[in-house]
Amino acid sequence: MNHRRWNLLPSVPDKHLVNTSGFPQLITQLLYNRSLTEPSQLESFMAADERLSGNPFLLPDMQPAVARIYRALLSGENIAIYGDFDVDGITATALLVQGLTTLGGKVIPYIPHRLTEGYGLKTNALENLHRQGISLVITVDCGITALSQVKKAKRAGLDIIITDHHTPLPEVPSALAIVNPKLSNSNYPYSQLTAAGVALKLLQALFQGVGKEKQPDELIDLVALGTVADMAPLLGENRYLVKQGLKLINTTPRLGIKEMIIQTGLNIGSLDTESISWVLAPRLNAAGRLAHAMTSYRLLMTDSPQEARQLAMWLEEKNTERQRLTTKVLIKAREQILAQGVLPLLVASDKDYPVGIIGLVASRLSEEFYRPAIVIRTSEQVSSGSCRSIPEFNVILALNQCSSLLSHFGGHSQAAGFTLPTKNLPRLEQMLSEMATTQLEGVDLRPQLDIDVEVTLPELGGDTFQTTRQLAPFGRGNPIPTFVSRRVEVVDCRTMGDNDEHLRIKLKQDGSVWDGVAFRLGNYLAEVSSPLDIVYNLEIDRWGGEERLRLNILDFGPGVSDKSAG
After folding, report:
1. What is the pTM of this model?
2. Rounded Cα–Cα distance for residues 246 and 223 (Å)
3. How confident is the model at residue 564 (pLDDT cuts 50, 70, 90)?
4. How far is CA 384 from CA 184, 350, 409, 421, 427, in A?
5. Between the N and C ends of the chain, which has fewer C-beta atoms within 10 Å?
6. Ordered DSSP codes for 249-260
7. How large is the greatest C-alpha to C-alpha distance in the chain, in angstroms?
8. How far apart are CA 194 and CA 140, in angstroms?
């Protein structure tokens, strides 16, 4: 029995191969698997150049937004950029502050405190900004659902421009302008921009008006960080923005990012999307999870080498603390889940769970047990929960059906959060559990693993790895190519890492020998027998100054000759 459901994607039809004869067959197969079938689509995807970039004035309300900001710049008004405490929000805030300052603006950032204020526009914060002499607030990564907050701000004489990328409600706020590619009246060709991407489009429109449309490209490193960290699909314009941003990070990284790269042992010149996902983003997020996200903002903005070093060191410490806390809470939450029996909906709650990491713990539980998971920080009066889900259960839809019990909620189909009066918690758990039990009945609760192509280990030689790298940058919507090889001989296998969490395997097929690593599969050591069927990516192992190709094994099962197995 495999640990996941293996789904070998269908081969490219022969008639399609004729249309795409300019590409190697492997590339054609990989592109076909990503629903790219027209020759023009293939060409623009592979080039990932400026042709993927849309005209900023096609975004809704861009004209009135630009006009109002010009007026503020010309009359010397005080402008606040109101952001969010995750990487996308922090980078979008930094981007607009830096860009508007270049245009001569008097601009300050405002990022709410996760623990004391929570997400989104808050009336108290807006009133305080107004008292400080701010007359224009531009939101990034928030605001699209802030109906009452915008109404009150307007009555107080504060102008609000919303830039956001979240899905709007049927009613939108009465802001001066709302720039969001997901609005129903949007003519923009690409709807999946992140907050940092939307902020860049606003800057492009502003700089275009003064004949300097290329200048915002200097800030595209921030867009790459925000886009990858927010797990946006790396297709369409996002693909171009991340590719360009990575170039900038790899050639001339800003001081704060350079210091993080040095301290974490990454190599300038070889950073990719995984370097952002697994190394840079968690550190930038650590500030907002445990303290205040303004520290990460300052790191992105500093021009002092000494301050960059100190801030990067502080973030490193906070990230270590975040890892320790996550492990501690995960152990306790896991015990709660197992004590209840693994139900269709996993719920763990405690008064001591830190709000900043409950989302991470919910994510790990959902990943391990392949079920929707909710982790809740309880208190006497009000409790806060973070939800992570699986494709078979839309958690935001479920919360919507419980909205009468909730004070606030929001999010996406597979990640959401809420607050509610603690007295409503038992009823909420009951309703969500009933929904999950009904919807997941009869579902094979193992994650699906899409496989691009079946190969033998000897076929991986030559330029296979370099060929697949042509599809980078990789991420959601454009995953790292995944292979399956059948009946592979196991030469050696042992556990490695803390608590023997991972497996190190040496594999052989038809004279070809490969090293492999199976992360978080250490528990399955007893199931390793020869021959094995393996599903894996190719990756570079950088160790001791050397680089070697190895197999990153995602799953394995007993070797069978029947190709449909799994």
Report:
1. 0.90
2. 10
3. very low
4. 31, 10, 10, 9, 15
5. N
6. HHHS--HHHHHH
7. 76
8. 10
